[in-house]
Amino acid sequence: MTIVTSAGPRAARRARRCRSIGPGAAPGLLRMPTPERRIHEGRAVINRAELMRQLQIGESTAERWYRERAENGHPEPVHREGRRLYWDEDEDEDEAVARAQEREAAKKATLTPVDRSAEPDELVDAEEAARILGYASPRTITSYLARNVGYFPDPDDVEGRRWHRRTLWAFADRRSRPGRAGHANTRSDQR
């Protein structure tokens, strides 16, 4: 049995220790549940692994949603085989869309407020751009340009290092949450 890990020497030692104990002793890091979709009583049901795959969430998130289902509205399982739980696939999809929209709105609420007043085609310098985006200093923009290539849009007026307000507003709309590096297609030449 070969265990491949990129988590470092600590995880490799842990994997070797679990391998020497036996196959049933592997920790959650090495145990990969198999996504399943079945037909039960005429309707499609999925297990937790398939739910995680569809929603692109981790195991701890799926477990927390299930554990806190009384508060968060996570649906009850419709079928059980031994210790495996199965949920109605259609019901989960609707719930997942609603939950994802709620999470996205909560993330957006934590972002700095954006000033959307004035003319969209007006060119502004880094100081005014920082004010528009709610940053404390224009150094934030300078840092983004120097350290996170592709995160902040290139200036629309390269010589004067100025941006159209609409460029800044589009950047603000693509932000996902504070501290997260990078967006897809943020460069001004990719618009």
Question: What's the gist of this structure?
Answer:
With 191 residues, the protein is α+β, with helices and mostly antiparallel strands. It has 3 domains: 31 residues, no CATH class; 78 residues, no CATH class; 68 residues. The protein is built from 8 helices and 6 strands.
Could you describe the 3D structure shown?
Residues 92-122 are annotated as: Disordered. This protein has helices at residues 9-21, 48-55, 59-67, 69-72, 89-109, 126-133, 139-147, 165-174, and strands at 37-40, 43-47, 79-81, 84-88, 123-124, 163-164. By secondary structure, it is an alpha+beta fold. It has 3 domains: 1-31, no CATH class; 32-109, no CATH class; 123-190. The strands form 2 sheets. Strands 1-2-4-3 form a 4-stranded antiparallel beta sheet. A hairpin with a 2-residue loop joins strand 3 (79-81) and strand 4 (84-88). The model is unreliable at 1-6, 19-23 and 179-191 (pLDDT under 50).
Q: How many helical elements?
A: 8
Order of helices and strands: HEEHHHEEHEHHEH
Q: What number of structural domains do the residues give?
A: 3
Radius of gyration: 24 Å
Question: Which word captures the global form?
Answer: elongated
Q: What's the count of strands?
A: 6
Helix-residue proportion: 40-55%
pLDDT averaged over residues: 76
How far is it from the N-terminal to the C-terminal residue, by CA?
Answer: 49 Å
Provide the β-strand percentage band.
Answer: 5-15%
